[in-house]
Amino acid sequence: MTHSSAAFANQIRFLLQSLNEENADHVFEELREVEAIFASLFKYIFDRPNFCTIFCQSLRSTAISERFLENLSNTLHFSACEKIGIGLALLDSEHLEFRTCGKNFCMAQIEELCANPVPMKSVEQIQNIIMYLHQAEGLYPLLDSFIQMLSLVHLERGASFVLAPLLSDELRKANLLGDLDLFCESRENDFDAILAEMEKERNVDNIMMELGYGCTVNALQCKEILCLFLPLTEATISRLLGTVARTQAGLGDNQNTFVESLSALGSNSLSELPLLSSWNIEILIDSVKQLAPGTNWIGVIEKLDHEGFYVPNYDAFSFLMAAYRHACPDQFPLHAICGSVWKNVQGQLSFLKYAVSAPPEIFTFAHSARQLAYVDAVYGHKFQLGHANHAWLCLDLLSVLCQLAERGHGSSVQSMLEYPLKHYPEILLLGLAHINTAYNVLQYEVSSIAFPLIVGNSMGNGMILHLWHVNPDLVLRGFVDVHIIDPNNMTRILDICKELKMKNRGE
């Protein structure tokens, strides 16, 4: 620091000694640059914990006065708060004249600030000024003026909290009303940000589970509870659906908690409430519709990928589907559950586990945009369209299962494939033949089981031809697997290849 100070002094001395009419403009420009550098350094150390010591030490051989401090502050373009900080720094000096000068300068700047209020950004500066005025003798009138001034200017976040205990009730009320005015006048994007923060702080899961099934005892009580979560956004409703589905049974008797909550809300209709063993889904959905009539229910389903969503059993899955059917006449948005891998992978797996085996009246994949073409000549009579939910004809489902298998969830996916592998492996293999992933792990696993069965069936040549047109690499790998299982299958493989060649020529 001493070396830097000497360098600055020598540079300034050199510029002044070399000053003449010819280089005057250049010298003044150099001095302005030095001034800017010095101001930046000064403001940098201004926020350091040892600023008072450094500042007082740097002035030890200087005769200071209020005029000197004023000139220094103006030259370095200090703000009103920084000027007060200079005065406060001198109050810790060992020299009486420094302390006296600092006190007088500080008082003058505080009086100027009270007369011409400006925003204050530093909470620490506000605290220091208040503590100084509070401890100094005979300065209570100035302390009142300073606090009054602070109540009239904009403070940074945190400063209002520090100031609140010192304000009168009238000023606190005025500040509250002012904050409400600012809130109402905020821009739309600011309002959306506030709502997002509010939504994060709400825990609809815990509140609904704590209150229990009594929340849906009737429409009036249900709406009173749902008002706690207003506005009912798609994300909030999605979390609500996930909660009631997961806890549709076995939640326990929370009637006492529910009654106490109604009392806290000021409800008078507490007598003879019936005990419920599950959520009344019709009352719940109807109440949501009344409080949020413009809800996009497809958007609600799209937001099921949230932390905590999980389908524990088939009853919970059926309950969730009943809720959606009551809420929305549209077909279930399949892209929401098999369009991509969720962040909440366990939640997605739990949903798909019951979706693939559900009867078509509960859940169906029949309206999938990407479906495997149904060919009687290939499938025979094994697969009856009227008695299945078309899960294994849905290419999007097969695609997301392949991706899940390659992300470490192979055992969960394999458990879903047990039934189709046992009853119609050809259909499953043909569907997977349309899917290409990074490693094709699931495709090869299914092929190793299904392809030998097809080769061993004298009626399977049509299926192999179909597979060849879709994914020839999978067929070649299947032939290799069949040969490894039994080298005597080579004759059968050659016969199939000859037939494929003849059929290809015929086409």
TrEMBL record:
Residues 445-502 form the CCR4-NOT transcription complex subunit 1 HEAT repeat domain. One of its GO terms (biological process) is negative regulation of translation. One of its GO terms (cellular component) is CCR4-NOT core complex. It holds the Pfam family CNOT1_HEAT. It comes from the Eukaryota. This is CCR4-NOT transcription complex subunit 1 HEAT repeat domain-containing protein. It comes from Vitis vinifera (Grape). The lineage of its organism: Eukaryota, Viridiplantae, Streptophyta, Embryophyta, Tracheophyta.
